[in-house]
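User: I'm putting together a teaching handout on how multi-component assemblies are represented. Below are the sequence lines for each component of a complex, exactly as they appear in our records. Could you produce the 3D structure of the whole assembly as structure tokens, so the students can see both representations side by side? Please keep the chain order the same as the input.
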Amino acid sequence: MISLTEMPAGKKGTIAAINGGYGLVKKLDKMGFRIGKEITKVSGQWMKGPVVIRSGNTEIAIGFGMANKIMVEVK
Amino acid sequence: MKILLTGNPNVGKSVVFNRLTGVDVISSNYPGTTIDFAKGYMNIAGEQIELIDVPGIYTLEPTCKAEEIAIQMLKDGDIIIQVIDATNLERNLNLTLQLIKYKKPMVIALNLFDETKHTGISIDVEKLEQIIDIPCIPTCALTGQGIKELVERIKDARLSSFVYNDSQRWNEIGDIISKVQKITHKHHTFSEILGDVSVKPLTGIPLLILVLLLTFTLIRFIGEGLISYVFEPFFKEVWAPIMLKFSDLLGQQGFFHDLLIGKLIDGRIDYGQSFGLLTTGLFVPLGAVLPYVFAFYTVLAFLEDSGYLPRMAVMADTIMHKTGLHGLAIIPMLLGLGCNVPGVLATRILETRKEKFIAATLLSIAIPCMALQAMLFGLLGHYGIKGLGIVFGTLIVVWFIIGLMLRKIIKGTSPEIFVEIPPYRIPYLNGVIKKVWMRLKWFIKEAVPFVLLGVLIANLLYTFGVIQFIGKITGPVFTYLLGLPKEAAGALIIGFLRKDLAIGMLIPLNMTLKQLVVASVVLSMYFPCVATFAVLLKELGVIDLLKSTMIMVLSALITGGLLNMILSMTLN
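Assistant: Of course. Below is the structure of the complete assembly, with chains in the same order as your input.
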């Protein structure tokens, strides 16, 4: 299990844990991202920039700090 | 009766609203375009119905202030039309299920339905309607498909009989999806590949630079072309002779002559120096600025509707973080390059007070609006990099330094970026034309009266010696600190009303390049125009506005003073 920031771009994985507060869980949930959801990491940026992930037709950009709290099981 | 249009951000609510009411509202391809509600009316079977376009929400449990306000608004509706992005059924149904518990009669517009076809999604609409027990109408609001059916079925709006346990919401949704939606395997489309390329650092950064270069080149090319081939010839060959005849009629002098036509320079009309209402007063907004405003909004419309802006936000995020903002703040900045008023309004897409304050202040200080830029191009364009380059370069450096400082000084939090990235779409030409037209109309309505008022006031102030008087008492600041002639005080006073006119007032002063550069930078920074000031007051409140204004004046004086010192040693 690694965090979204460590996950290599282009890989698929499943969200395994969200090590953040209720706020982060809720924010992700409203966009349809929750534990068990399969995602693809589209990109990360240099110098702690945001991470872009996709699930189905939804693509979101998440700040580095938040992405660091999202743990994934990489396939 | 009152109908509310709601739904997730960027599903096309504003386009549906426009189709239903005929009221023009700005729509784009990024979440958060609609920052305020819009109201319009439609007729159903002879009854006039009020329709409200509510800013987008993902859930009924707000996670920020903007969502809270949007959710509050739902209370007043008799009927709710939920606009759904049919290519994102699962996430959109999450809101549907919550709305069902909200107990208001509902109708659903399955918008962007045409896009489901080439994304390999097929939705069984009848079955969906059966399960959730709400009328569902497939629509494509951009082309108007399905809108008639939507209107016809508003009368069928009803309270759903669908029941579920809230803790099982996502499971229920999964269940519905498995029954009504089939996804056929499809290959990566070109737009998806381009989408990935745009947010990967190795390809995204060069692309961002390319887009920015192309944007500014196009704006200059279109703006300059329109001026030299259409607007200047018109004002020189057509309008000037008419004004000269009119001048003869008025006897070539006198109070009214000078007010309307201004002073004749060597028996001719000089739009830079005559300073009459019908000469300079019309030439500045219509002849010099309008072509650039048109160019800017045309290019902006393509950027907005393509879906590039959220990707630009991702690429700009790291830099924006240094100023206490996040990538999404690039959107108000970009809108501010057109006009600071919509720029300041767009700071509402930022969450905290700190972010809004920083964004609004940076915007007012270091983001010159298109009207100001157009005049700068005219004033300094022929000096090349030494003129425009120094002015814009200084503004960029100032933007960054003040951002760095505000991030440290201003209390509060700077949340991270969290934004949905819509798919790339080919801008719909009719939509682009309409949007550009709306913004031009707005510009003409707002700018022309203010410029005319500015010309009038400038004339009166000169006639009564007020500008000369202010020039005298503020003289030391102008001559010692900024190295400007004291007559420049007039431009600074008129700059409160319109920046473009203020730059125009510098032309007759015969200043050196150094003075022109310093005056341009100070004029850009020292204070926003009165229209921007009014929205700043509304968005920030009195106390924060006073703080922001202090920062503006101080930074303008410091920057102007430093620039004067440095340029005295290097230029000339």
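A couple of points students might notice: The first strand of chain B starts at residue 2 and ends at 6. The interface with chain A takes residues 58-59, 61, 63, 87-88, 90-91, 94, 119, 121, 170, 195-196, 199-201, 204, 310, 313-315, 317-318, 326-327, 415-423 of chain B (CB under 8 Å).
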